[in-house]
Amino acid sequence: MVNANEPTHLSTDHLPLITKYVDDMSGGLRMVSIEIHDNPEVGYKEKHAHAVLTDYLQQKDGWRVERSAYGIETAFVAVYDGCRPGPVVSFNAEYDALPGIGHACGHNLIAISTLAGALATANLLKDEQLGGKVVLYGTPAEEGGGGKIKLLSAGAYRDHKVDISLISHPGITCDAALVRTAAYASLKVEYFGREAHAAARPWDGINALDALITAYNAISVLRQQTQPGDIIQGQITNGGLRPNIIHAYSSGRFVVRSTSQARLDALKKRVIACFEAGATATGAELKLTLGGSYADHMPNRALGRSYRHFFNRMGGSIVRGDVDIIEAATTASTDQGNISYAMPSLSPNFWIRSEDADGKQLGGPHTPDFAKASRTEEAHSLAMRVGKALAATAVDVLTRPELLKEAKDEFQKLKQDLQAALR
């Protein structure tokens, strides 16, 4: 449904031109998707996907493609300049897979939806003689490796003076524009104790496993006093050598998630206190190593309104913004969240079918069922619709200065609110 307060038409409607262009190249994009899907590669090893995407882009007139960009072997930056200066719209492509279960997060569909969006936007720049620039970033290792964060830190977005960032993600939940994700941080925990004979002289030892179990149990108790949206996950990776030895070493990996970066920081302090309690209780030495972390994704409502307008015109049914931003929240995490802290960002969800022949719901993202779902013709068609809506949103930004101003004003307000929350 479309909110009565949202535009029913825009000054210059480019959606029909975008639709025709994407439809014309859909067959070629389907081949790109299958090549990526059928040759899954984990983060920072996506050499085949990198080659497939950059080879495809280099065949397109006017595109400048930098392979292995910013010192990251499987990253790329592709740029298309308009006929004069103007806003810079960017798209992020993902193409890494999960170990053992391949493209069970549908990153082949993310790659081709943003590729379609970027190419269609560039085509409008050329045909309509528009000002501005399109940048497509190839962002490896979304599944825990933080490729976007590395590109952001290296200046990839700053160097091209990017104004907005667009991406999308498939799932089994309803189509949505204003997707919010959780912030997360990972920690490696190690305890160092002292060996002793567990039967003859246990008092000579310092039990590192007891320290880890004490911390684990403290975290289990802590969960009773955490807020909705706070998640703590743990794994014991080393529980000692043998039961008749007082364990001199233990280790585990933990992930902490929350609905915002501010909430995450507060929760992480409480979790670290549990680890410190394990050390205090047993006398073991604690070593904490911070791993990767992703910020929560803050969707831009102005961009979301534009995307929803175009998506719904193509048969979609994204609900109005004030409902969408509540229903589209997820406890999953993505490095697009860090992008949303640097510039106005949008990361819509699009539903694809993961069902058996009788219509029974099968697995969602990060399951083998979803890997199969992300290869179907229907999923491809749905990704193409997303690509059209992303392109229409990008062109909307390029042709309506008031939209870009609104998106940037909203982004600045979000940053001010965040700084106030952290004080």
Overall CATH architecture of the largest domain: 3-Layer(aba) Sandwich
Please trace the helix and strand order, writing H or E for each element.
Answer: HHEEEHEHHEEEHEEHEHHHEEHHH
Main sheet specs: 6 strands, mixed
Strand order of the largest sheet: 1-2-4-3-5-11
Please bin the fraction of helical residues: 40-55%
Q: Give the CATH class of the largest domain.
A: Alpha Beta
Strand content: 15-25%
Task: Give the tally of structural domains.
Answer: 2
Average pLDDT rating? 95
Overview features:
423 residues; alpha/beta; Aminopeptidase; Alpha-Beta Plaits; six-stranded mixed beta sheet; 43% helix; disordered N terminus; Peptidase_M20; Peptidase M20 domain-containing protein 2; Peptidase_M20_dimer; dipeptidase activity; Xaa-Arg_dipeptidase
How would you describe this structure to a colleague?
With 423 residues, the protein is of the alpha/beta class. The protein has two domains: 15-180 and 297-422, Aminopeptidase (3-Layer(aba) Sandwich); 183-294, Alpha-Beta Plaits (2-Layer Sandwich), CATH 3.30.70.360. The chain is built from 13 helices and twelve strands. It has helices at 15-37, 47-58, 107-127, 147-154, 156-159, 208-222, 261-282, 301-313, 321-327, 336-340, 368-373, 377-399, 401-422; strands at 64-67, 76-81, 88-93, 133-138, 164-166, 169-171, 183-192, 231-238, 249-258, 285-294, 345-346, 349-351. Strands 1-2-4-3-5-11 form a six-stranded mixed sheet. Helix 1 (15-37) runs antiparallel to helix 3 (107-127). It starts with 14 loop residues before the first helix and ends with a helix. Residues 1-5 and 7-11 have low confidence and may be disordered. Pfam families: M20_dimer, Peptidase_M20. Residues 185-277 form the Peptidase M20 dimerisation domain. It comes from Baudoinia panamericana (strain UAMH 10762). Belongs to the peptidase M20A family. This is Peptidase M20 domain-containing protein 2.
